[in-house]
From TrEMBL, chain A:
CDD domains: ABC_Carb_Monos_I, ABC_Carb_Monos_II. This is Nucleoside ABC transporter ATP-binding protein. It comes from Desulforhopalus singaporensis. Its main location: membrane. The keyword rRNA-binding does not apply. It holds the Pfam family ABC_tran.
TrEMBL record, chain B:
Keywords: Cell membrane, Membrane, Transmembrane, Transmembrane helix. It comes from Desulforhopalus singaporensis. Pfam families: BPD_transp_2 (PF02653). It is a multi-pass membrane protein. The keyword tRNA-binding does not apply. This is Nucleoside ABC transporter membrane protein. CDD domains: TM_PBP1_transp_TpRbsC_like. It is found in: Cell membrane.
Amino acid sequence: MGCSLPLIRLENISKSFGRVHANRDVSLEIEEGKILALLGENGAGKSTLMSILAGQLQPDRGHIFHKGKRVVFSSTEKAIEAGIGMVYQHFKLVNALTVAENVYLGTRGGFGLNWKKIRKNVRELGLQYGIDIDPGARIDGLSMGERQQVEILKLLHRQSNILIFDEPTAVLTPREADNLFAAMKQMVARGKGIVFISHKLEEVMAIADNIAILRRGQIVDRVPAQEVTSTAELAERMVGREVLLKVDKSPVEPKQIVLKVDRLSDDRLKDVGFDLRQGEILGLVGVAGNGQKQLVETICGLRRPKGDNIRILGLEWGRFFRKPDWDKTLSYIPEDRQGLATCQGLDLLDNFLLTTRGGFTRGPWLQYDQARVKAEHLLEKFDIRPPDLTACAWQLSGGNLQKLVLAREFYRKPRLIVAEQPTQGLDISAAEDVWRLLLKARDAAGILLVTGDLSEALALSDRIGVMFDGRLVACFAADDQSKVAEIPQLMAGLSV
Amino acid sequence: MNFEITVLLLAAAVQSGTPILYATLGEILTEKSGVLNLGVEGVMILGALVGFLASKVTGSPLAGLLAAGAVGCVAAAVHGLVCLVFQGNQVVSGLALTILGTGVANYIGTGYVGQLAPGFAPYPMPVLSQLPVVGTIFFNHDPLVYLSYFIPVVLFLFFSRTHHGLNIRAVGENPAAASAAGLNVAVYRWFGIIGGGFFMGLGGAYLSLAYTHLWTTNLTAGRGWIAVALVIFAFWKPGRAVFGAYLFGGIMALQLRLQASGTQLPSSILLMLPYALTIVVLVLSSWKKGTSDEPAALGVNVEPAD
């Protein structure tokens, strides 16, 4: 098998959205009987790459070769014909239909359906790969793991020979994940090629034959799995460490404590504790899904903490969120700009007023004229395009939308800022703008910066915290070089 | 009420339930594909008028029936155009279709009010109509009633035993999944809309060509709306639609008989009965526990792929 042509070869695939390079000169080979792991943080361009492979997106440049022959996947049907099958994170199943019906959906040929025979076929197909599932069961009665098995059966039934799993273990219990890995091994043993997209290092180490690492749209590394000695090594390759820009970071004298988290625990978090002072940036790093999201949501009032473990600006959590002021308080810059930070169908002025309306109310009235003057000034100051308050939020590019959110939040003169992946999906110049704004805001505020990009954290932070499995495993000054060198091990959960 | 009258009443229930049955089955076919067509009333009355006119001109009730089916397809296609091509709101489009259909039919039909056209005559089934009770209730009708016995069976087999039936159900439940499986969602929705419109047109034609043989203003009298409600009562199952349609047919026949028998009840109360029952039926069927049988993507437009 060694010298045969790869099932799929990608050559110099590039794809941009506006000025953002989602993929740049990506070359990959998917081989028969091998599991290729595609490793990268959120926003590194994994999903874009796979959408191109599945025929949902067209590359701007570059070619796809199927068994050595150049092909163009102009539609999903073309990709399916070539034997490419995707197991999406969000299952594409018809909940009201049975397993067998879902598997046979879209099958051509013949008019009538003999369900007895079909169910038998589905059952036998599953058992070949160690998938034991009742073909007559309705999807809405199945667990997430079983639903995923149905997705896999669909692809096997279609005789796909290149199977792409997009973060398949995200919805699985550990036991179900083991079953999945066993099934994947069966599939490659039968000559199929598998792409396994993940950011879970242990899984990649455990299952992959080859590993490709994607960062900011580029393949930064390609290694056979047996050459990787530890998850720490993988983590280091994944997050990178070169400093992308030199920001002028003049030291600021830390002042009073603005956020105090004291032994916070819940179903995901374990004993998280730290202080954040005005004048400093605490960069919280870690592989996504290690509790950062839960921590941020708890601090920002989206999740209720179990006890009185959090003090914000000197107030207990409950008292702080009972009636928060609109200004000189907590600003949250969420990762989900489209869903949490803005309302897509409202215009920029209304979006500006979402969190700042407290400053423009007199009695029951909202003073739109004053708000318009202020907002127009901000559009100009932050160079938000189009500079038009009547534009809707959905018309803005990711970078401009993020600038709008920042402009709005900084207008509130916050004393505590929680910024979650603030530069994700932005091009480098927009990212630099955001970094400068955050550094400037540091004079008056304490900033909790949650990021999956280590170089960003290192460039901005005064202190670094590392999260693993719901714990804050380490917290140290950002100029402590010996500690910084240990970050990859800490992120991988290895004690040092 | 003695036995003989009851049997006759049940026979009348089958007859007056038949147009509702056609319309309900048509709406089930449409809704299974994920499209809500509230224009049933409008499509039915257009079918009734065109069927009447075609039969009057050609002298052949069969030509009238086919013309009614055809105009049903065309009227429903207007709904398809709005919803599938222009991504319009399905509720608004359906309501507009009802208003348009009744308006156009009553306007064109003004000159024909009270006129007769050749229609379908009762044709007692040989042998079967001689059966006691059952023969009178089910096999002593016109051919359109007999035709309506087959359609639920055909639809049931179509939905449960054929590729295309499975595909249309998937399209109505989860168009994204159907699309990912390589199905053309729009094609199946067009089929559901136009096929449904055909049956609605036949339901209308039954009123002008079999139930009566004449045209009057507002001939459908809300039967299209009853059909919309019956789809919910039937849990989108063709078999249950039969019971629902005959239940309503029974109420309609009963109130006619009661009026004729000179009861003390005001006629407006009796006329209200079928519509009051509609509300009762909707309330009862919404009490059903567990998973809903409603197609999950009902009323949701699907953007065409780029």
